[in-house]
Amino acid sequence: MIRFDAVTFRYSEASTPVLDNASLSIPEGELCLVVGATGSGKSTVLRLVNGLAPHFTGGHLTGTVTVDGLDTRTHPPRDLAGTVGVVGQDPLAGFVTERVEDELAYSMEQLGVPAPTMRQRVEEVIDLLGLHRLRHRALTTLSAGEQQRVAIGSALTAGPRVLVLDEPTSALDPHAAEEVLAALLRLVHDLGVTVLLAEHRLERVIQYADSVLRLDTEGALEYGTPAVVLASSPIAPPIVELGRLDGWEPLPLSIRDARRVAGPLRERLRSAQSSVPSGAVAPAAGSIALTARGLRVRYGRMTAIDGLDLDLRAGELTALMGRNGSGKSSLLWALQGTGTRSDGTVRVVGRHGMAGGSSAEHGSGLPGGPGAVVGSDPASGVDPATLAPDAAIRHIVLVPHAPADLLYLESVGAECREADRAAGALPGTASATLERLWPGVPEAAHPRDLSEGQRLALVLALQLAGAPGVVLLDEPTRGLDYEAKRRLGALLAEVTASGGAVLLSSHDVEFVAGTADRVVVLSDGEIITDGPVSDVLTASPGFAPQVARILRPLPFLTVDGVRRAIAGTL
Amino acid sequence: MPSADPVTTPRLDQSVEERPAGRGSPHPVSWWIWAIGIAVATTRSPGIVSTVILLAALVAVVWLCHEHSAFSRAFPAYLALATAVVIVRVVFYVLVGIKTGGDVLVPLPRIPLPDWAGGIALLGPVTASGLLAAASAGLALAALLVCFGSAVALTNPQRTLRSLPASLHLLGTSAVIAMTLAPQLVESWQRVRRAQALRGRSLRGRRAVAATTLPVLEDALERSIALAASMDSRGYARVHKGSSRTVLALMLGALVGAALGTYALLDGSGPRWLAFPLLAAGATAAITGSIIASRRIATTTYRPDTWGARESLIAGCGVAVAVLAVAVPAILPPPLRGAAADVGGWSLTFIVCGALAIVPALVAVRR
Questions:
Q1: How much is the pLDDT for B81?
Q2: Using 50, 70 and 90 to split pLDDT, how confident is the model at A320?
Q3: What is chain A's mean pLDDT, rounded?
Q4: Which of A49, A138, B102, B120 has the least CB density, counted as fewest CB within 10 Å?
């Protein structure tokens, strides 16, 4: 269905090719997963398939790419519209019309499909993807998962033989992601559509894949069955790492298969557990760094946060989870003080037990919180909303979900100096932090030219310049590959080790399992669960990481945890 | 970025979302014909009262039949604008208008300006007839504005663009995208402003503008590239084979014909005999050009709007109002034209016109 024949592709300004003499052939009706580190060219491969590269992006192509017998060299993307359907990372950016039904019909209108056929196909796709409740809705009012399903639907109505998706679940919570993947699976099984899917979070999709296409940064690629390709891949989901650790052969890719071969491992771990008290060492509860009581956030008639109490402790990393639209971002912004806060109190306690510098600007007493207060008295804290911006960043900082919004200067060095000035820190503080977080980011580089991971590290370094006691992060793992996530985890550990309190919102179960001490699950603006990470993540099947699912009922969350337990017994 | 936006900006189209997309509401073109008909009639109005009758009919129909959309909520803005036009016209009359004889209402002094001002004088005695004439002239312009506003309020412009002939399809798509661009820019501007407050330094003046403009523009650029890529991969402009010179010439000809013809028709002092041939020639050129251009494009329309008896009635009312207002004064002998000389502008014809204009409300009332 898709053939690459000695394909070499290079962007005009780049010195190294994205693909170097690559040949492969993907048969019809296959779900092929495209994996690779950030910058390895996953998106480029997807664009080559429908001709956007090089027709739209520019660049130099040698060799031939054929899709369903059509050469992309002679067929620009618009001519391939009936053959290849494309779904981008941000579905909202690709919508042309205003309403779901019109969007579904758009491709067909362009292709000149007769009206009766159009109505029939729209109905079919609505049934296939369960969109009947949404058909008259405006596209901007849909949730992220619904938007993604509509985007898939509108690519599907044109009747393509190939569907190309670039990280379709990156913005989705685990349940919404599963809905989207289930829809894709139906297409593969029922309609025989060939699906080419790029994804960072392999743990979500690996079990559905028929084949894997792995890209190196050097332009080489490897194509084969998932078990074969992943056995040697540096990029691997936890299930594969666990399999490698215990020497499972062949590698299981679904939880079901893994559980069946994991019996002996479970036995060993159980005995290891009884001899050595393993698992995560309960973190020493530090003093309270932030306390919120009766927090309420309303936008007009809509209530985003409904009377919420929350304490953050120094040295603790708390993960905020919950489905899309459960109020995670609203909570972070309200705690930081910039966002809307309709009711309730927020107090940030200064880092070293001091009541946050000048304590003159607050005088109101705090209604005694219900929870037991450890350490310094939270009533002595300061409300971040009353602080001037330059004072606030020495107490509490927030990294928003689009970190690039914070950057406005010409170079990394200038941004760092500006951050030092704003926070009143010693010159060189921010750039030193950056060097530690992500070595080798050039001072002269323009912030917009950095990779996602580097940019996040830069923003974090800037925000940490004032040595704030509380660090809030909104979805920091979006679009990061495994390596970047590992670095992010390490630097957050550094923040907590130096006595900072971290609260981050995330959909990434595996990342939370590996880094967080405590998990707070939010639903409709209320806290549903609040507890240590090992309790919360093993209790709910939706939020459980792969290792916990495989080793249930043993309380292991990560491959590292298992590795430590095994090492302890030897 | 759709998932985690804590700024719940009030969505313009929130109340539309559960409603079937204009199913049951009349074809947008019928409302445009109706509004244009009334606009033609207002230009022939003999005075204030007649214009007000037509305005009342417009407001009543909009109030009864409007769709729930951002555009219908903008109708009060059109009314406010119209009122402002009348007020400005009257104020200008009092300030610099040429004062003729008549019953003096307010005896203001006349202040002559120096010669370079071209003989204009400030103030001067305000007369009842002058005031009425000024208000009437202002009202005529205001009425045109309200006609346009009514058409916009009664139809969703996007639906109207969908009913355009295929030759204008590409234009229509661009217009739709342009309409969604403004709210997007506002949204990303708000987002960036909020984010930059997190840096701990409130920027002011030129630096603040530069700091926000850059990310917002970058955002807009990225969005438009993503949209262009999406449209390209979805077959946009696939069967369009470029424009041809014939079509261009015909369209230009049509435009000139329409402009001259309309001028001749509406301006009572112009050469009337020219009007209809010019309009007809313009229309023919437009239709021919459109047909030629449409043949080159093979797009289809999903759920095209249908034209039924109701649409014919609505459009017919508009045409009838226009024909009555233009033809009756021309045909009837002066004594029977109603009290045309009356400054108030009473006219039996326009009472009939007003009644006709409100008829569509009977068939198109929203449920």
A1: 92
A2: very high
A3: 84
A4: B120
* Assembly ipTM: 0.81
Contact list, B206 vs chain A (CB under 8 Å): none
Q: Quick check: B300 contacting A, CB < 8 Å?
A: yes
Task: Tell me what the mean pLDDT of segment A123-138 comes to.
Answer: 87
Give dist(CA B146, CA A279) in Å, integer.
73
B37–chain A nearest CA distance, Å: 30
- Chain B residues with CB under 8 Å of A176 CB are none
Using a CB-CB cut-off of 8 Å, the residues of chain B touching A333 are 6, 194
Q: Which CATH superfamily is domain A2-235 in?
A: P-loop containing nucleotide triphosphate hydrolases (3.40.50.300)
Decide: B350 and B325 in contact? Cβ < 8 Å: yes
CATH 3.40.50.300 domain locations along chain A = 2-235, 288-539
List the beta bridge partners of residue A138: A99
SS3 A461: helix
- Cβ distance B361 to B34 under 8 Å? no
- pLDDT of B331 > 80? The answer is no
- Sign of torsion over alpha carbons A73, A77, A81, A83: positive
Judge: B201–A389 Cβ closer than 8 Å, yes or no.
yes
Q: What angle do CA A262, A264, A270 make, to 5 degrees?
A: 100
Give the type of residue at A100: V
State whether residue A138 sits within 8 Å of chain B by CB. yes
Cβ contact, residue pair B230, A137, below 8 Å: no
Instruction: Name the least confident of A15-29, A112-126, A143-157, B186-200.
Output: B186-200
Tell me: the pLDDT tens digits for A271-311? Answer: 877 665 444 455 556 788 899 999 999 888 888 888 889 99
Q: Which residues of B touch A106 (CB under 8 A)?
A: 234
For A174-254, list the strands marked E by DSSP: 194-198, 211-215, 221-224
CB contact under 8 A, B235 and A111: yes
Q: Find the mean pLDDT for residues A513-536.
A: 90
| Mean local confidence (pLDDT), A424-429 | 86
Question: Cα angle at B15 between B12 and B21, to 5 degrees?
Answer: 100
Helix (H) or strand (E) holding A295: strand A288-299
| Inter-helix orientation angle A429-437/A482-497, to 10° | 130
Contact at CB, A90 and B16, closer than 8 angstroms:
no
| Burial class of residue B68 in the structure, from the number of CB atoms within 10 Å of its CB (0-12 exposed, 13-18 middle, 19+ buried) | middle
Phi-psi region of B252 (alpha: psi -120 to 50; beta: other; left: phi over 0): alpha
Cβ within 8 Å, pair A144-B303: no
CB distance A114–B5 less than 8 Å? no
Residue with tokens 């059109």: B78
Q: What is the mean pLDDT of residues B207-227?
A: 82
Chain B residue at shortest CA distance from A447: B215
- Residue A207 pLDDT greater than 60, yes or no: yes
Asked whether A35 and A202 are in contact (CB, 8 A), the reply is: yes
Question: Count of CB contacts below 8 A, A vs B?
Answer: 219
Q: Is-cis flag, bond preceding A54, omega within 30?
A: yes
Closest chain A residue by Cα to residue B212: A408
pLDDT tens figures, A71-101: 998 888 888 888 999 998 788 888 888 789 9
Q: Angle CA(A155)–CA(A157)–CA(A160) in degrees, nearest 5? A: 65
Q: What is the pLDDT of residues B15-25, one digit of tens each?
A: 343 444 445 67
Indicate the helix (H) or strand (E) that contains B93: helix B75-96
Type of residue at A203? E
The pLDDT-based confidence of A30 (bands split at 50, 70, 90) is: very high
Distance from CA of B246 to the nearest CA of A (A): 24
CA–CA separation, A455 and A47 (whole Å): 25
